[in-house]
Design goal:
Strand order of the largest sheet: 1-2
Order of helices and strands: HEEHHHHHHHH
Oligomer: single chain
Radius of gyration: 29 Å
Amino acid sequence: MVKYLKEAFWASPHMPGLGQVPVNALAVAAFGIFGFAESWIWLVGLGLETAYLYACFTSERFRRLVDAKELVLESAEATKKKTELVASLTPPRRDRLRRLEARCGRILQSYRQTNVDSAIAEANEVTLKQIAAFYLRLLLVEQNLAELEAETTEPSLRKQIETLESALKETTLSESGRESKAATLHILEKRLANLSRGRAVMDEVCSDLQRLEAKVELALENARMARGTEIIATEIDMNRPFLEDNLSDFTLGAENTEQNG
């Protein structure tokens, strides 16, 4: 409700030579100023403004326009965010994403060429968008894990841990020195655990990437063989703990754009 009233109040149609002008806001200001000379002008202004806002709020067409404008802004923000995320990928991963998106595009093209039922085509288009967004997130996780693996080696961490454990056995070590080394040891043990968990997650991510690629290839084959009447299922849980990051906004934005397009 508030967003419709706000949009109606600040409505700014394009005026030749002036650009976007907040006509309603200026009219309210004018009534407010002239009302100091004649108080009845305030009552007229209040009545006109109330009627105007009520007419806008109850207009289905006006609400649709506001909603459409909001979706366009969300879509633009999602596109911007996706562009930034894709740019952060290494060239090989970026090419891998583009190949998958190209295959998704060919599936939709096949649907149009074979006159697949519109409801099924639209449902599959939403699914393909979700797959592409999830695929991007997986590539980013894979890239981060690969960088972690390259920067930190297990033998190096274990050697540092053994050195600290030996140092902590020294009886001549001061209390403050012992506390410092114990804290460092605790940190290194956590890093070692992260490294181990990272390898397990990497295996899971690589498996998911391959499954999504296979899923898209199967959908493309079905579409080419005029069997595109099947609903595409991802069969992959897209809410993994290691994917709970700021990419969720981007994915949601892509889904909302498709569902409301």
